[in-house]
Specification:
- The two termini are about 25 Å apart.
- This protein has a 6-stranded mixed beta sheet, with helices on both faces. A 4-stranded mixed beta sheet has the order 4-6-8-9.
- Strand 1 and strand 2 form a beta hairpin.
- The longest helix is centred in the first third of the chain and has 15 residues.
- The chain folds into 2 domains: about 190 residues, 2-enoyl-CoA Hydratase, Chain A, domain 1; about 45 residues, Orthogonal Bundle (Lyase 2-enoyl-coa Hydratase, Chain  A, domain 2).
- The chain is globular.
- Helix 1 runs parallel beside helix 4, helix 6 packs across helix 7 and helix 10 packs antiparallel against helix 11.
- By secondary structure, the chain is α/β, with parallel strands linked by helices.
- Helices cover about 45% and strands about 15% of the residues.
- Bound molecules: hexanoyl-coenzyme A.
- Hexanoyl-coenzyme A binds next to helix 2 and strand 6.
């Protein structure tokens, strides 16, 4: 597939794919065309058996400065409803392989919401996170009020959403929005290191474990626990479980096949 607004390297490293948002002049503003490409790329990588983890990144200045304000400015409520951009986001939400965000510079509005669609986040020390929609007379629409609140708690989410103020990478780390903060020259490398750890493991166990962790977002504890248990049992039907446990007993490295 060829893309205009993103760069995609399905074989960035063994089992690791890289998707880079690429509208640098517009600070990677997420217009509909770019988001459709992100959706298509992630879907295709999700179905690619060679890929076990995906890194989503921008550039040093911006991960993404939000939805494209110029594209939205003249729209009315019906236009927005008919465009139905959130079906694109719903598809991204359903990607089964782990996605690691490598964030530098601005991650604002839809940009921060896209980060929160990822499973782990490496931030450069220059990263800035925020939900500034309130400053342009709207509010978050791609999960910002919900995911942010679950991630950082009510008062912190309220402060970000109601003032539009940005937080820096260190504060994002303290609030649990990112896994770690590294010098700017290392953020992509650190994301790759994290991906390397993940891709050595059983891809099928990783998939079911990701699904179970995400279940914690939208189900009561008892339902989530049931779901976890079913996925746990299901893994005992895989060759990877046999291999993983045999390798432990035989004191050797496991070779996982994803079956
Ligand atoms: C369209 C954008 C943009 C955006 C930046 N640009 N952000 N264009 N949509 N979200 C463009 C600018 O217009 C400018 O283009 C170029 O990128 C560089 O930006 P500057 O503003 O000149 O850079 P700087 O002074 O460094 O300021 C950076 C910034 C600022 C603080 C990030 O650009 C900013 O406040 N951007 C908007 C952030 C925002 O409000 N995001 C939320 C959007 S709403 P020109 O052509 O003028 O040089 C949203 C809703 C999500 O995300 C709903 C669900 C999808």
């Amino acid at each position: 597939m060829s893309y205009q607004f993103i760069l995609v390297e399905p074989r960035y490293e063994q089992h690791i794919a890289l998707v880079q948002l690429n509208r640098p002049k517009e600070l990677n503003a997420l217009h509909l065309e770019l988001m459709a490409e992100v959706r298509d790329a992630l879907k295709s990588l999700d179905q690619d058996p060679e890929v076990r983890a995906i890194i989503l990144t921008g550039n040093e200045r911006a991960f993404a400065a939000g939805a494209d304000i110029k594209q939205m400015a003249g729209k009315n409520a019906i236009d927005m409803l008919l465009i139905d951009q959130f079906s694109t986001w719903d598809t991204i939400k359903k990607i089964k392989k782990p996605i690691i965000a490598a964030v530098s510079g601005f991650a604002l509005g839809g940009g921060n919401e896209l980060v929160m669609h990822c499973d782990m986040v490496i931030a450069s020390e220059t990263a800035m996170f925020g939900q500034p929609e309130i400053k342009i007379g709207v509010m978050p629409g791609a999960g910002g009020t919900q995911r942010l609140t679950r991630n950082v708690g009510k008062v912190n989410a309220m402060e970000m959403v109601l003032t539009g103020k940005f937080i820096n990478a260190q504060r994002a780390y303290e609030l649990g929005l990112v896994n770690r903060v590294v010098p700017v020259e290392l953020y992509l490398e650190e994301a790759v290191k994290l991906a390397r750890e993940v891709v050595q493991l059983s891809p099928i166990a990783i998939k079911l474990a990701k699904e179970a962790v995400l279940k914690a977002y939208d189900s009561p504890l008892s339902e989530g626990l049931e779901f976890e248990r079913k996925n746990f049992y299901m893994l005992f039907a895989t060759e990877d479980q046999k291999e993983g446990m045999a390798a432990f007993v035989e004191k050797r490295a496991a070779e996982f096949k994803g079956r």
